[in-house]
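Objective 1b. Sequence-to-structure analysis of YueI family protein.
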Amino acid sequence: MDVNDRLEQNQNGSGPNLKPDEKRLYLGTYRERVILAIKVSQINDDNAKSTLKERLEQNPDANLVIDQDQCGAGYIDYLQLAIASGNNYSLLSNNEVSKQVTDPYAIVLAAKTAVNIDNIEL
């Protein structure tokens, strides 16, 4: 591929994506940035909410990504946690869910840069 073609693609936003499957799995972010990931089956778990509250307080610059379609009405509790802690948040709707897993992530707390946390699940 010609260098000029590649530059033009990137300027238009149509260039190749880096790790698209990983970004789908972690709601638009890379694994290395994930602080906590909550699966669909854990949405109504009180432990998930208390753990997230803790992590939000410990990481004030982190962004909470919530897939509304996967959370159902339960997304409101998580949204309120983000607002109360002062963290940024993003709400996804009609998000492309990873086909690689049977219990996908519905909520991801992500840092702006790599944090490389080994255990991101509850």
